[in-house]
Design the sequence.
């Protein structure tokens, strides 16, 4: 009887803990990382880079984005707030480094990603700065 009571009391806490994952990160794709066995697609980023300077060689854009993301998260502890579930162990989410750096925002600020139409204003502003500054995928080729 006590174990059922404990399970009922602890169950909401366990469910809310599943809304976030923390751990080392690994790059899966230009806007997707793996944290604690969970794939997280960085919310607010758009993988479409048709306007980027490397548009005729989209593989080059992908490589720039993946390399930038890898350099940002390498050796870092990452916490991701999970949003919409895409598939089993695959979520949209926002992720940050231990120092509070928003990974998606940094991606667009460095020109390693493109802010999507529903991205936060900070992402869109950062993306404009990267484009006008010729950073990342916006660098002259």
Sequence:
């Amino acid at each position: 009887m006590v174990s059922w009571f404990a399970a009922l009391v602890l169950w909401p806490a366990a469910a809310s803990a599943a809304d976030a994952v923390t751990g080392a990160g690994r790059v899966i794709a230009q806007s997707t990382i793996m944290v604690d066995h969970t794939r997280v697609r960085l919310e607010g980023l758009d993988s479409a880079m048709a306007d980027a300077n490397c548009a005729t060689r989209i593989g080059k854009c992908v490589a720039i984005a993946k390399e930038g993301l890898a350099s940002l998260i390498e050796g870092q502890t990452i916490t991701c707030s999970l949003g919409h579930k895409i598939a089993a162990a695959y979520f949209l989410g926002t992720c940050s480094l231990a120092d509070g750096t928003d990974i998606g925002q940094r991606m667009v600020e460095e020109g390693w990603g493109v802010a999507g139409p529903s991205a936060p204003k900070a992402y869109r502003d950062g993306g404009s700065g990267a484009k006008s500054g010729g950073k990342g995928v916006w660098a002259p080729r």
